[in-house]
């Protein structure tokens, strides 16, 4: 059986996040997207934890599900085969502290096996006077090593995974406030870190140029701030059953180069990750958003990483940082490592296919729900639908757009300094049956 997991999202209590991010809506949109397992997010926030306690109930060991009385439907979504979405207790914490005479800003994903353990985590953090009410992703003035020590003293089953590991401002390897290795960040607890989250602006090959990352697993998640982007990156597991322990055992086994269990012996396997094209991520290239300057690292290095417009230091992106720390010229896939697949969100594909600028337009919406209902969810369509099936049920322009996304026939203007990259599936003035000019709207 296959399980698609998105292990990093946010709630309505996180800064700059949609107020629609409540348990019943998250459950509904996981069914729409085709997600089987999702993080609860933000469990340190008192009001959110109270809401989780009210609306979730235990399911498989260490996992939860939405209580039936809170389950929602959507008139657009004709759910032919009900999907039983599971929640895992997970949050993101922001650690800001000084180490080796440098201010560090590092975000971590933290997972717990039960509500009771979460209560202990929250009590311990409150005892240290951290303001958990301020934000769903609270700021903790604590060293990453010390944080992990505290968590493991509470319960050895608690898992910490560095979030969006290469992002410039708030990540373990970030150019502006990070470290050069896992050991530098976590010290004596470094051996407890068995995975990192690659983030939207990097992909597995970029990470595989670093031999010192061979011993950790690479996972990918949406970091969703709204319902519509759930599952834009995800993890695909296969096995007979799933639980909290089995999930992290599967990730661990894929993290130890050359020691992964054989597929026919492991109860759960991390098979592959679903990836953004990293160029589309907000921090892929070096640049300055205010000056509209975006540069490949080799171009930035020629000008000593200084913005040619304003004369200030550029924000060095993920590509720059992965190459700076790389000890391999080319990516080498570690033995028994999970694979990956690139994807583009369905709404973006449809918008390109019909020639509409806004992914929230009526034209896109109509096609979106039609396709979701025909194929049982967004990810099942994007990952599983064969071209023959698509040709029989999908307009030709959308089929061609999906084909190009799968075959990597795209033009992408890379993202930089907080600006998303721009994906183009069709060339300017290219004639495609069923596709109108960019300025028009399909009625």
Q: What does this entry look like structurally?
A:
- By secondary structure, the protein is α/β, with parallel strands linked by helices.
- α10 packs across α11 and α10 packs across α14.
- α6 links the parallel β9 and β10.
- Mean pLDDT is 93; it is low at 258-262 and 438-443.
- It has helices spanning 23-33, 46-55, 115-127, 144-154, 182-186, 204-207, 244-253, 297-302, 318-325, 346-354, 362-375, 378-384, 387-393, 396-406; strands at 2-6, 37-39, 56-58, 64-66, 86-99, 102-112, 139-140, 159-162, 195-197, 217-219, 234-239, 268-275, 286-288, 293-295, 339-342, 411-413, 422-424.
- The chain has two domains: 2-279, TIM Barrel (Alpha-Beta Barrel); 346-424, no CATH class.
- The strands form five sheets. Strands 1, 2, 5, 6, 7, 8, 11, 12 and 15 form a nine-stranded mixed sheet that branches. The chain has a two-stranded antiparallel ribbon with strand order 3-4. Strands 9-10 form a two-stranded parallel sheet.
Structural class: alpha/beta
- In whole angstroms, how far apart are the ends? 40 Å
Radius of gyration: 22 Å
Average predicted local confidence, pLDDT: 93
Tell me the total number of β-strands: 17
Strand content bin:
15-25%
Number of continuous helical runs: 14
CATH topology of the largest domain: TIM Barrel
CATH 2nd-level architecture of the largest domain: Alpha-Beta Barrel
Give the number of domains.
2
Instruction: Label the overall shape.
Output: globular
SSE inventory with pairings:
Blueprint: E1 2-6, H1 23-33, E2 37-39, H2 46-55, E3 56-58, E4 64-66, E5 86-99, E6 102-112, H3 115-127, E7 139-140, H4 144-154, E8 159-162, H5 182-186, E9 195-197, H6 204-207, E10 217-219, E11 234-239, H7 244-253, E12 268-275, E13 286-288, E14 293-295, H8 297-302, H9 318-325, E15 339-342, H10 346-354, H11 362-375, H12 378-384, H13 387-393, H14 396-406, E16 411-413, E17 422-424
Parallel strand pairs: 1-2, 2-5, 5-7, 9-10, 12-15
Antiparallel strand pairs: 1-11, 3-4, 5-6, 6-8, 11-12, 13-14, 16-17
Helix pairs in contact: 10-11, 10-14
């Amino acid at each position: 059986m296959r399980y698609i997991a998105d292990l990093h999202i946010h709630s309505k209590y996180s800064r700059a996040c949609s107020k629609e991010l409540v348990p019943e809506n998250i459950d509904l949109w996981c069914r729409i997207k085709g997600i089987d397992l999702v993080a609860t997010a933000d469990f340190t926030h008192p009001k959110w934890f109270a809401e989780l306690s009210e609306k979730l109930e235990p399911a498989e060991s260490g996992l939860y599900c939405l209580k039936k009385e809170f389950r929602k439907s959507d008139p657009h979504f004709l759910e032919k085969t009900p999907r039983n979405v599971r929640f895992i207790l997970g949050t993101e914490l922001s650690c800001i502290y000084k180490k080796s005479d440098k201010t560090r800003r590092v975000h971590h994903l933290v997972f717990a096996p039960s509500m009771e353990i979460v209560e202990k985590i929250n009590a311990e953090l409150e005892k240290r006077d951290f303001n958990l009410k301020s934000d769903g992703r609270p700021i903790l003035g604590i060293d990453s090593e010390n944080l992990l020590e505290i968590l493991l003293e509470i319960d050895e089953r608690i898992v910490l995974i560095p979030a969006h590991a290469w992002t410039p401002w708030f990540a373990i390897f970030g150019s502006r406030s990070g470290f050069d290795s896992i050991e530098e960040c976590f010290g004596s607890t470094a051996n407890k870190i068995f995975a990192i989250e690659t983030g939207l602006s990097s992909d597995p090959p970029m990470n595989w140029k670093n031999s010192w990352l061979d011993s950790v697993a690479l996972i990918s998640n949406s970091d969703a701030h709204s319902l519509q982007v759930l599952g834009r990156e995800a993890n695909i597991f296969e096995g007979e059953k799933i639980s909290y322990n089995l999930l992290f055992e599967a990730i661990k086994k894929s993290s130890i180069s050359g020691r992964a269990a054989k597929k026919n012996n492991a109860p759960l396997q991390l098979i592959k990750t679903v990836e953004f094209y990293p160029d589309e991520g907000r921090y892929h290239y070096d640049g300055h958003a205010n000056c509209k300057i975006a540069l490949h690292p080799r171009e930035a290095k020629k000008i000593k990483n200084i913005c040619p417009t304003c004369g200030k230091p550029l924000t060095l992106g993920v590509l720059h940082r992965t190459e700076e720390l790389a000890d391999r010229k080319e990516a080498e896939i570690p033995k028994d490592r999970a694979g990956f697949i690139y994807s583009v969100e369905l709404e973006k594909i449809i918008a390109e296919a019909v020639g509409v600028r806004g992914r929230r337009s009526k034209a896109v919406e109509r096609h979106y729900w039609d396709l979701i209902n025909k194929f049982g969810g967004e990810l099942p369509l994007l990952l599983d639908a064969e071209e023959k099936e698509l040709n029989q049920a999908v307009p030709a322009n959308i089929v061609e757009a999906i084909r190009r996304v799968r075959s990597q026939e795209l033009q992408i203007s890379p993202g930089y300094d907080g600006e998303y990259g721009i994906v183009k599936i069709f060339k300017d003035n290219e004639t495609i049956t069923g596709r109108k000019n960019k300025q028009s709207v399909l009625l």
